[in-house]
């Protein structure tokens, strides 16, 4: 048996396969899921929560074997009535037949790292031959030095072969599975939650992982004129609109009174959001989504400061004076948000973005000056103190008060902030106001349903590198913390979990995720399964009726719920000009320092995401999910000094990784978008120079403060104010931050 210090892979006839030995499926980091056609409406998707498997890899891999046991009663389709019926004697009869069993009988090789596993599947006492399509997805070591490998396996079966022939429509709107069932044996690797490696017997663990799959597009809608308005659906929790909620048996229009939601509201909302989820599943399989050309979008969150570099609590007056629908309020009274018009980035699309953004920001700055304020593009405004971030300084829009009440109420106690960086911050707050300090730059990329998983997985894989080169939030409450403190602050300031729930492993609402995905559906289904509703507001729409009538369902409840789960890469379902589309919303970066810096970050993200999403061998088949998450947090802490893990390189300085590997891939991705070579080289050249000089926004801020403290003899508070004044001046030059002088 190979020790954990030896390679976990070997070469066999030109293929990379696991080292011979006995492996166990990690019970905490696997996924055994299935998709089954509804007889009348859509598809049922679900999983078996409890399963175990032993994988014996022989020296001759053709002699390898697999045995697996699935606990039938652990079936979960996110609908309690349906699950109860599936466990009953009329279907799986889990009391008499508690397990589903699979035993392999042989192995056949296919192209690449793909195999066919011959075997027998037993369900409800009936055994039938079943062939599993198996792919070895990659191997590596967790951050704890333990060997792991990933695989996927799938098969299509007909449940009637196993005597499962009963069918009925439920009064709740659910329909039991009928016909063929596509069973996906997949998994996830997450060494953070339950490190993979040797168990008590000395055998090594294997983590299955689902491969990105492909949806089916059909029944396209009639061509529609592409709308020229920006994507205005704000999916961040603080952006969720809360105008009213539906009264029992009534209609939309009754104002939310003191943010109080009844038990009936929550039950109704849960039923409605699950109904939306079923309709969304059907749409993914049988609907025409707008995916003709890859539109992009940008959102920039802004800070307002006064002449003394203090936060200016006057966004309402300034917004009214700007009078531009592209600008909106944000959580804090010192915040605004600018939505760029979505566009293609082919040709000189980035130059068009730059011109529009500079024009909009210049016009807004002129209006702000009338109120003795100016705009600063930064991840966290360094002059913020605890006295600024209080409930009274939330924007006056009612939605923010309701959101604050729901988050603090869900937690049941004050929110604790404890961030350990170069210095340490320990404090607590009775509101979500500290979250207003987090001002971000968000990228939107429209993708087709069948490629969404590829782009989301790619976005997760590169999040660490993005944050490292783009960090711009080193100070909070006068303390130097992480290079990108916004990451830690955002998670803690919106955490609905008291300490006891954290100790139980309950997932936070600010969430990196825990596995690679095979479909956008995986993310929406996780949202519904793991997170209770914060804003149980039901709309009048019946999505099933709309779909049957040939319309496009709004899926308002599903979208609102998605907006209360803070993924760093968020799935978005939206409708423009009567046609639905899907987007990846990349949320990992801070605002600033300049427009050209932000567009360099955009070029790096869009190009790299496409380059990796369309690569012959996906990065997520070589990098464990836990490594991607660890990279993200290391990069947030260390910024340009981060050392990240990367396939075939091991531990590597992020600057070396970007210069030698990621920038060429980003350039190739931009070429596929059709970006003009001069624009490509101009923007990626800024990322290159950041790496060569070792200076991003966070580095410049800390160097400027140190200089003010050491050379000017200023205290920390005065040094921060001096730095912000200088930062605002240099920002208006639009010179990249790596060229800024440190006074």
Written account of the structure:
With 743 residues, the protein is of the alpha+beta class. The longest helix has 24 residues, at 263-286. 31% of the residues lie in helices and 25% in strands. It folds into 2 domains: 9-208, Lipid/polyisoprenoid-binding, YceI-like (Lipocalin); 296-739, Creatine Kinase, Chain A, domain 2 (2-Layer Sandwich). Mean pLDDT is 84; it is low at 1-5, 38-42 and 167-258. The protein is globular. Strands 3-6-7-9-10-11-12-14 form an 8-stranded mixed beta barrel. It has 17 helices and 29 strands. Helix 2 packs antiparallel against helix 9 and helix 4 (349-369) packs antiparallel against helix 12. Strand 22 (475-476) and strand 23 (479-480) form a beta hairpin.
The CATH architecture of the largest domain comes to: 2-Layer Sandwich
Poorly predicted sequence stretches spanning 5 or more consecutive residues: 1-5, 38-42, 167-258
Average pLDDT: 84
Compute the number of structural domains.
Answer: 2
Q: Hey, roughly how much beta strand do the residues contain?
A: 25-35%
Number of strands: 29
Largest sheet: 8 strands, mixed, barrel
């Amino acid at each position: 048996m190979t020790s954990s210090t030896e390679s976990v892979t070997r070469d066999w006839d030109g293929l990379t396969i696991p080292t011979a030995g006995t492996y166990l499926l990690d019970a905490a980091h696997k996924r055994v899921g299935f998709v089954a056609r509804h007889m009348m409406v859509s598809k049922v998707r679900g999983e078996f929560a409890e399963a175990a498997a032993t994988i014996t890899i022989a020296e001759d891999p053709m002699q390898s074997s697999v045995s697996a046991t699935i606990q039938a009663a652990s079936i979960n389709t996110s609908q309690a009535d349906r699950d109860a019926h599936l466990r009953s004697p009329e279907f799986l009869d889990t009391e008499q037949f508690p397990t589903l069993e699979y035993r392999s009988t042989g192995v056949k090789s296919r192209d690449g790292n793909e195999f066919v596993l011959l075997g027998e599947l037993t369900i409800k006492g009936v055994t039938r031959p079943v062939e599993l399509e198996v792919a070895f997805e990659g191997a590596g070591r967790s951050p704890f030095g333990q060997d792991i490998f990933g695989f996927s396996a799938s098969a299509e079966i007909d449940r009637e072969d196993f005597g499962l022939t009963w069918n009925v429509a439920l009064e709740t709107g659910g329909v039991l599975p009928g016909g063929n069932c596509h069973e996906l044996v997949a998994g996830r690797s997450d060494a953070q939650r339950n490190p993979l490696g040797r168990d008590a017997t000395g055998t090594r663990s294997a983590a299955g992982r689902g491969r990105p799959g492909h949806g089916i597009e059909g029944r396209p809608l009639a061509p529609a004129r592409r709308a020229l308005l920006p994507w205005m659906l704000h999916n961040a929790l603080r952006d969720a609109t809360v105008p009213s909620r539906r009264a029992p048996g009534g209609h939309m229009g009754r104002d939310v009174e003191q943010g109080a939601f009844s038990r009936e509201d929550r039950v109704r909302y849960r039923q409605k959001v699950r109904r939306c989820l079923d309709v969304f599943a059907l749409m993914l399989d049988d609907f025409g989504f707008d995916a003709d050309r890859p539109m992009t979008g940008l959102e920039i969150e802004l800070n307002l400061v006064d002449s003394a570099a203090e936060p200016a609590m006057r966004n309402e007056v300034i917004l009214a004076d700007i009078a531009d629908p592209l600008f909106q309020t944000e959580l804090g009274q010192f915040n605004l948000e600018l939505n760029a018009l979505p566009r293609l980035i082919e040709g000189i699309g980035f130059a068009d973005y730059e011109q529009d953004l500079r024009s909009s920001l210049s016009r807004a700055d002129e209006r702000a000056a009338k109120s003795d304020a100016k705009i600063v593009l930064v991840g966290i405004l360094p002059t913020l103190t605890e006295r600024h971030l209080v409930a009274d300084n939330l924007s006056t829009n009612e939605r923010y008060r309701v959101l604050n009440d729901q988050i603090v109420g869900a937690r049941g106690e004050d929110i604790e902030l404890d961030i350990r960086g170069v210095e340490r911050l320990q404090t607590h707050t009775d509101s979500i106001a500290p979250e207003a300090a987090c001002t971000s730059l968000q990228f939107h990329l429209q993708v087709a349903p069948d490629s969404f998983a590829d782009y989301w997985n790619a976005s997760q894989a590169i999040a660490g590198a993005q944050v490292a080169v783009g960090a711009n939030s080193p100070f909070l409450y006068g303390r130097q913390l992480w290079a990108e403190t916004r990451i830690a602050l955002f998670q803690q300031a919106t955490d609905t979990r008291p300490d006891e729930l954290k100790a139980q492993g309950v997932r936070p609402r600010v969430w990196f995720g825990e596995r690679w995905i095979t479909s956008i559906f995986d993310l929406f289904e996780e949202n519904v399964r793991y997170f209770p509703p914060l804003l149980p507001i039901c709309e009048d729409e019946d999505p099933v009726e709309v779909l049957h009538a040939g319309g496009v369902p709004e899926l308002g409840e599903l979208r609102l719920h998605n907006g209360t789960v803070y993924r760093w890469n968020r799935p978005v379902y939206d409708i423009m000009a009567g046609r639905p589309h899907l987007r990846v919303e990349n949320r990992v970066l801070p605002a600033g320092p300049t427009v050209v810096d932000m567009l360099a970050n955009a070029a790096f993200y869009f190009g790299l995401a496409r380059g990796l999403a369309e690569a012959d061998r996906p990065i997520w088949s070589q990098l464990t999910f836990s490594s991607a998450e660890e990279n993200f947090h290391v990069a947030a802490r260390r910024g340009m000094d981060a050392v990240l893990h990367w396939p075939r390189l091991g531990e590597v300085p992020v600057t070396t990784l970007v210069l030698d590997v990621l920038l060429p891939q980003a350039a190739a991705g931009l070429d596929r978008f059709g970006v003009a070579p001069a624009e490509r080289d101009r923007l990626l050249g800024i990322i290159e120079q950041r790496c060569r000089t070792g200076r991003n926004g966070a580095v410049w801020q800390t160097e400027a403060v140190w200089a003010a403290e050491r050379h000017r003899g200023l205290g920390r508070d005065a040094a921060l104010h001096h730095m912000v004044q200088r930062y605002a001046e240099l920002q208006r030059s639009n010179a990249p931050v790596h060229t800024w002088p440190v006074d």
